[in-house]
Amino acid sequence: MLTLDAHPSGRHFLQIPGPSPVPDRILRAMSLPTIDHRGPEFGVLGQKLLAGIQQIFKTRHPVIIYPASGTGAWEAALANVASPGDLVLMYETGHFSSLWHKMATRLGVKTEFLSLPGTDDTGLPVTWRNGVQADLIEKRLREDSSHQIRAVCVVHNETSTGATSDIAAVRRAIDAAGHPALLMVDTISGLACADFRHDEWGVDVTISGSQKGLMLPPGISFNAISPKAIEASKQSKMPKSYWAWDEILESNKTGYWPYTPNTNLLYGLHEAIEMILEEGLDNVFARHQRWGAGVRAAVNAWGLPIQCADPAVYSPVLTGVITPAGVDADAIRRLIYQRFDMSLGMGLGKVKGRMFRIGHLGDCNDLTLMATLSGAEMGLKLSGVKIAGSGVQAAMDYFMAHPQQSGLRAAA
Amino acid sequence: MLTLDAHPSGRHFLQIPGPSPVPDRILRAMSLPTIDHRGPEFGVLGQKLLAGIQQIFKTRHPVIIYPASGTGAWEAALANVASPGDLVLMYETGHFSSLWHKMATRLGVKTEFLSLPGTDDTGLPVTWRNGVQADLIEKRLREDSSHQIRAVCVVHNETSTGATSDIAAVRRAIDAAGHPALLMVDTISGLACADFRHDEWGVDVTISGSQKGLMLPPGISFNAISPKAIEASKQSKMPKSYWAWDEILESNKTGYWPYTPNTNLLYGLHEAIEMILEEGLDNVFARHQRWGAGVRAAVNAWGLPIQCADPAVYSPVLTGVITPAGVDADAIRRLIYQRFDMSLGMGLGKVKGRMFRIGHLGDCNDLTLMATLSGAEMGLKLSGVKIAGSGVQAAMDYFMAHPQQSGLRAAA
Amino acid sequence: MLTLDAHPSGRHFLQIPGPSPVPDRILRAMSLPTIDHRGPEFGVLGQKLLAGIQQIFKTRHPVIIYPASGTGAWEAALANVASPGDLVLMYETGHFSSLWHKMATRLGVKTEFLSLPGTDDTGLPVTWRNGVQADLIEKRLREDSSHQIRAVCVVHNETSTGATSDIAAVRRAIDAAGHPALLMVDTISGLACADFRHDEWGVDVTISGSQKGLMLPPGISFNAISPKAIEASKQSKMPKSYWAWDEILESNKTGYWPYTPNTNLLYGLHEAIEMILEEGLDNVFARHQRWGAGVRAAVNAWGLPIQCADPAVYSPVLTGVITPAGVDADAIRRLIYQRFDMSLGMGLGKVKGRMFRIGHLGDCNDLTLMATLSGAEMGLKLSGVKIAGSGVQAAMDYFMAHPQQSGLRAAA
Amino acid sequence: MLTLDAHPSGRHFLQIPGPSPVPDRILRAMSLPTIDHRGPEFGVLGQKLLAGIQQIFKTRHPVIIYPASGTGAWEAALANVASPGDLVLMYETGHFSSLWHKMATRLGVKTEFLSLPGTDDTGLPVTWRNGVQADLIEKRLREDSSHQIRAVCVVHNETSTGATSDIAAVRRAIDAAGHPALLMVDTISGLACADFRHDEWGVDVTISGSQKGLMLPPGISFNAISPKAIEASKQSKMPKSYWAWDEILESNKTGYWPYTPNTNLLYGLHEAIEMILEEGLDNVFARHQRWGAGVRAAVNAWGLPIQCADPAVYSPVLTGVITPAGVDADAIRRLIYQRFDMSLGMGLGKVKGRMFRIGHLGDCNDLTLMATLSGAEMGLKLSGVKIAGSGVQAAMDYFMAHPQQSGLRAAA
User: Fold this and answer.
1) Of A304, A379, B137, D397, which one is least surrounded by beta carbons within 10 A?
2) Is the same domain home to A262 and A307?
């Protein structure tokens, strides 16, 4: 028997910024019997999924679904449009943009990695506390008069920091520079939580994954692709097969895939799309914004710095909390895990041990967040962190003052 | 599709005093395929269940398992030992003892219904704020020199009030009176939450159900029966068949039942027994006691009266909260349901609208209770109830000061 | 871990005449979280269930849903309309009618038990190979000029023999005799497999259960009741409370029950009703009739006697197969269980060891039955039973010649 | 609601050679809540999985687990050991070896594709009816005196034909030629059905997937890698990141992965490993061999050619059945799907429409196969195919004569 099937009393609180808590409805859908991926039912399912996922990305163009985690979709994006030796312009917003940058390097792509310089008084890198600065991108593109830069790569919602980036501004920057570079955006943790508009914002490749706003377990990832990206892919010399868009696009026409898809996770995706579209994407975004505001009210009351230094780009998905210098944030997380059966997100890379992350996404509601904030507040206190005031009270005040507008159980 | 399979965001908080939240492990077990209730596997399962459930009741004597809810087990207890016209002495501790009393009357049994007189300053009946007064029972039994009273019937944990009763004291009262009456105890909502000792306390028939401390959905109920009760059942003239112990006892010898048992709920019972015995009954009791203390800390901080007026018999299963006169407790509950997707227990019978009940049982942990108390506190405030202070803060203080001792996820 | 969660390769074939194999869809529904049985969602569910189940019984009158197995609903029927000492006329069609008769006796009701006399050349009682003979009932009622007989009790589908009874004919017999007796019918294993018409056939109390045609696990049972039965219940002097219709009828008006209902099984009932009504009751009946015909083709090819001696009343639910004298049918069943992981129904009561029963109900299709017949045929051969020819071939011939008309996967 | 959750009566028979029917136990495990892939529980799970999967591959060396389907693991194998322009020697045994060959070409690897020439009297390519001819490989390697060939790539169990290949013989051929080429083997559909010995047979990279013998849904795939393969990977110049072994090996040391793993499928893998090792690998292999023999007995009785022309390498996983010339095998499959709710495998690539495939793997037992063969036999007849005799009878005869030795329900 799986040790996971053991029985501490009560449910674990999985309050990391993804994998998010999976709604039971999705777990139930995933337990349907696996079907023949070449049979007639599958084609019907496939076509329904491909149409539905376009609505989530707000695109009329194709969305590729990979049986792979989000990291695979990063590679797919680069491998389809770039060739070894191509130059791509990336922007450091945190750990995940850094990993994507590292991947590009491994793939033989030349990179430039823009960022804001320095650290601030918290000791954290400034660029890990802010979103993309579109003016830096515009400046660099203007310098690239020979159009060596093949693509601009940015992260929409930095899962390691809790800062989003203004993608429309990046698009404007590229246009203002009159540069032909493709715009590639990672919204792995932003999709279906934070507003995202693939077509309207002129994104060429959007990368996402299943285990965040879509509320699925990990294992599926996406490339939403513009006609310009498809055109570019025909020139790419990067060796690839699994990630290659061409055969998938051909096969998708009838609702199938060229190789075995991730059938049972696709059942879950079907449910997720239905749940999200039924509530309405704008309602879903507002719901996450409100949760974020409630959580930030708590962090502010504690007197601890929110990692995202720019209120204009606070993430609706997660909130990074900077712990006082000299306090090991991971020790606090460990205590909370052991005393209160809750997982909070760890500080990654350059901010390891200096912060923790509270996820407010997935199968969640106000009381889940009150539980989360209670657990965090008790953990901080038990760890000896001085807090200015009750975050729990502040969050209650916020939630009382701002009623939830959607995603509620129907009144009887 | 079942409306219940709809998708408000997040899990409902079922904080009524039963049916309690069912652990996923039990729901998973219940989804195993139904087997032949006359086949060889079933007999093995049956014998394992019958041995396990004895440990939960702390008895070496038989426990009858009915495919029926707890109300059925009440009837079974009366129907097996009493005959129409027999006199039984019952004690009013609240709504459920009153319902049992009403049932006895319907069955043609003569009853006397002891209670404490009057109402107190809250306007609530005094007898609905206390446990059984064993001295009243002793007094009445002493008067019954001709031994007309066939049985004494009391409720161990009054689900409608949050007061327990001292069963050992009732036993002592019967013995002190030198009276041969059978002792019949309803611990439907007490079993596997509050200490209960069928053999040691000399109980003749213990009635319980599946949907409280055993953490199953409703549908199974129990009669734990002493040799004296079995002897008495041979004289009973109450017409009965479904409830009759004799055929069940005979069939149980090989692990079977005389009629179709509730197979899939029995799978759940198997898991429940395994979970409880693995943690240890005393640990389970302590866990519920601690939760009760935390919740009462909150209610005290609010400045609202706890319905159970006798701290010696506070229930570890639920806490009744009396709302101020003139405030409709059901309106508060409705607001909490609609705003925060949480169910609290309603005031029943004589206390309808005057109180609500917080369940602290089933698949639960500290953070579940913090969510619960947050929801209740917000609901009180939004309903205009003046509260003295932060119950949420008081509960956090209690939980921080008193670490949980069992039922925790194993440290890694 | 539950031993049932062990891992023989492949699924067990549960081909007994109930509990029937439960569709995964129903098991999934049953795993939804338990809700507050006094909350607003529950009332909506309850009203939907109560309306839906009427359609299954073909009645405009109330259907009582008990958290109990079918045996409980037998008792409920008797306890609500009879008083101790009343006379009821019952008819022996097999083991289950005998058990109901025994129950009536235990409840203090006087009974007469009609039957066909004698045994035939198979050594089996003739009355266990036929349906109810309505003329015997009419004759007896005509003799009862003082109308001492309070009710006529018959079984619609004898689960122990595979013979149905003509309920409309019984109704006509009662009417022809001009007798006021109530008509009480057990269709525990017939409902939702064989045509049944509570209102049209003038049934006063119909008893049924969850674990047969409704394809649920055991644990729920039913009384469909006519206005005349309700009227009669007001005179009944049988002590009862759990089974009493009055409080349930009152509470059902708003979709609730007077005591805790079997919540998670009700979720399953919801799915079952939806599945059955969507296919259409007549289609469901035809589907079972066709299965029965296919199975009987096999038994005929084997040259073994079908237990039901009257082709006009062959059960669409199960087929009883008489084994040659001197062969222990239970030994054959055991071998099949061990070699082929299939459960067949045992011979009960007077036919123990002389026959086995093949269930063709529940979550089943043509290939399930081909598997079943293959297993039975191999078991017969391995047990040394001489068979005349290939039952498997005969069933294939039948199924090829008679295409299934409903309950199929939608063509793509 | 998912259309898949509709309700044809009974379970679909998924008798394709993978994805195989998933045992309920595995589906249940997959429905456990998703946990933090960086938390302490996950590391324990990861280490247990990595140790267990080694036993399945019979290796003491690392096994890489990818969140990807089998096609991804093909690419991973090539990408880690080859560089663009490298020469690999592949062998055409059917559709899947052809797809792998095509992939190698897309990745910029030069290939040679050995095969047996011509078609035989069935009109099918001879090389699609046989396993790898090791002598052809030895011959080619001996010619390669300058050791240009970097790797030899063969398929262990050709899912498109039902022929296995003698991997030990390929190893001997390489050794006899004194050639340093790596041996890379696809046993995607062979693992945990057919005997496979990564270490003993000197395989350098073994590729496999989750959705065949491991009985999981698709979505996980594997590279088992020898020290020599790891050494070779350090020289590879193929751009890659997701597939790169180095970071995964490093991260696996503590039971974690460098990017988000497929958590819920890993729960299923845990169960699969436990089920397989508990039965014993040799028992599992024998069970599949016996099933294959039973199915082939049926095909022989029908008088239809088994696609695998060499009895020495019959697959224990699936059997390819060649339909008479002029008969569209896909039309037969369609009829079977619509009439009997069973999926059979289609003819792929060069044999499309000329054959169908019967899978005998996954959650299966003798009666499942009897159902399968009955469905196939009825489908053949209804399609007008003349068959020589009863395949169903032949399979029953085989199964009766050869009792199953493991994977049975424990005798009671």
Assistant:
1) D397
2) no
Coarse DSSP helix, strand, coil percentages of chain D, rounded to the nearest 5 percent? 45, 15, 40
Q: What is the per-residue pLDDT across A280-338, written as a single tens digit (0 to 9) for each?
A: 999 999 999 999 999 999 999 999 999 999 999 999 999 999 999 999 999 999 999 99
CA dihedral over C1, C6, C11, C16, signed as positive or negative: negative
**D272 and D262: one domain?**
yes
Rounded Cα–Cα distance for residues D291 and D311 (Å): 15
C11 in contact with A at a CB cutoff of 8 Å? no
DSSP letter at A33? P
Residues D76 and D134 grouped into a single domain: yes
Q: Residue A346's domain is classified under what CATH number?
A: 3.90.1150.10
Which of B248, B195, B258 minimizes the C-alpha distance to B222? Answer: B248
- Domain contains A262: yes
> If you search the block for the tokens 């319980």, which residue do you land on?
B208
In a domain, A385, yes or no: yes
CB of A44 within 8 Å of any CB in chain D? yes
Q: Specify the number of domains making up chain C.
A: 2
CB contact burial B254-272 (16+ within 10 A = b; e otherwise) = ebbbbbbbbbbbbbbbbbb
Q: Does C33 touch chain B (CB under 8 A)?
A: yes
Give the closest of B25, B338, B400 to A411, CB-based: B338
Last residue in a domain, options C246, C278, C310: C278
In a domain, B412, yes or no: no
pLDDT band at A50 (very low <50, low <70, confident <90, very high): very high
Neighbours of chain A (3+ CB pairs under 8 A): B, C, D
Same domain, D236 and D346: no
**CATH for A91:** 3.40.640.10
Contact B260 C218 (CB under 8 A): yes
Give the model confidence (pLDDT) of D323-361 as tens digits.
999 999 999 999 999 999 999 999 999 999 999 999 999
**Could you tell me if B37 and B181 lie in one domain?**
yes
d(CA A37, CA D71): 14
Q: Do A319 and A226 lie in a common domain?
A: no
Of D251, D278, D305, which residue constitutes the final position of a domain?
D278
Q: Distance (Å, rounded) from C-alpha B158 to C-alpha D357? A: 64
Residue C75 lies in a domain: yes
For residue A347, the enclosing domain spans: 9-20+280-401
Would you call C2 an interface residue with chain D, using a CB distance cutoff of 8 Å?
no
pLDDT at B411: 53
Cα distance from D28 to chain C (closest Cα, Å)? 10
On whether any CB of chain D is under 8 Å from the CB of C387, the answer is no
CB-closest option in A25, A341, A409 to B341: A409
Q: Which residues of D touch B412 (CB under 8 A)?
A: 39-41, 43-44
Burial zone of A364 (CB within 10 Å; 0-12 exposed, 13-18 middle, 19+ buried): buried
Number of other residues whose CB lies within 10 A of the CB of residue C110: 15
Å between A338 CA and nearest CA of chain C: 25
* Residues of chain A neighbouring B409 (CB-CB closer than 8 A): 6, 8, 12, 337-338, 341
A285 and A174 part of one domain: no
Q: Which residue of A has its CA nearest to B396?
A: A378
Spatial neighbors of C183 by CB under 8 A, at least 6 apart, are C151, C152, C154, C167, C170, C171, C174, C201, C202, C203, C204, C205
State the pTM of this model. 0.97
The half-sphere exposure of C324 on its side-chain side, counting CA atoms within 13 A, is: 12
* Distance between CA atoms of residues D367 and C373, nearest Å: 9
Q: Are residues A305 and A263 in the same domain?
A: no
What does the pLDDT look like over C172-204, one tens digit per residue? 999 999 999 999 999 999 999 999 999 999 999
